[in-house]
């Protein structure tokens, strides 16, 4: 199961996990002057149906009634309003997940793909220090943490080498 950030909570049809529903997404699009057309609705409904992060190829396959270009344009539009987040993934391929607008980081299980979005930003001080010391104007950052969820960890053969400890945790 994917743990998505909380939905808008403003009378929309948000999902049980707190992620936005179709009415919430339509409102976000209207806010920027875009409409939820019938082809976009097909794409949005497919995105809502995904319970774990998905690839753009999986989304195209899930939208047989929408053209490939429509799927990619809609995905880009939803990224721009922040209701979909892009996640790099441990294998380097881009994945996407439904969420709510805002600044989110992700904890990703390398075993099953469970993804937990979190809004606390432990690198804010580092970003400020980097801007000060380099003269850069920092425009954004991403933080994705990879590990194994409790279920995947439990499924691994039990050896001390696989259990996290201060002595076998990789350094930064």
Strands, total number: 5
Strand-residue proportion: 5-15%
Mean pLDDT: 79
Cα-based radius of gyration, to the nearest Å: 18 Å
Rounded to the nearest angstrom, the distance between the terminal CA atoms is 29 Å
Strand order of the largest sheet: 4-3-5
Portion of residues within helices: 25-40%
Structural category? alpha+beta
Order of SSEs, N→C?
HHHHEEEEHEH
Low-confidence stretches: 1-12
Total of helices: 6
Largest sheet, in brief, is: 3 strands, mixed
Shape: globular
Topology, pairings included?
Layout: H1 22-31, H2 38-49, H3 56-62, H4 68-81, E1 84-87, E2 95-98, E3 105-109, E4 115-118, H5 124-134, E5 144-147, H6 150-155
Parallel strand pairs: 3-5
Antiparallel strand pairs: 1-2, 3-4
Give structural notes.
The protein is α+β, with helices and mostly antiparallel strands and 172 residues long. It is 35% helix and 12% strand. It has a three-stranded mixed beta sheet with strand order 4-3-5, with no helix packed on it. Strands 1-2 form a two-stranded antiparallel ribbon. Helix 2 (38-49) crosses helix 4 (68-81). The relative contact order is 0.13. Residues 1-12 have low confidence and may be disordered.
Offer a few descriptive terms.
5 strands; globular; three-stranded mixed beta sheet; alpha+beta; two-stranded antiparallel sheet; 172 residues
What is the structure about, briefly put?
This protein has 172 residues and is an alpha+beta fold. The chain contains six helices and five strands; from the N terminus they run H-H-H-H-E-E-E-E-H-E-H. The N terminus is likely disordered.
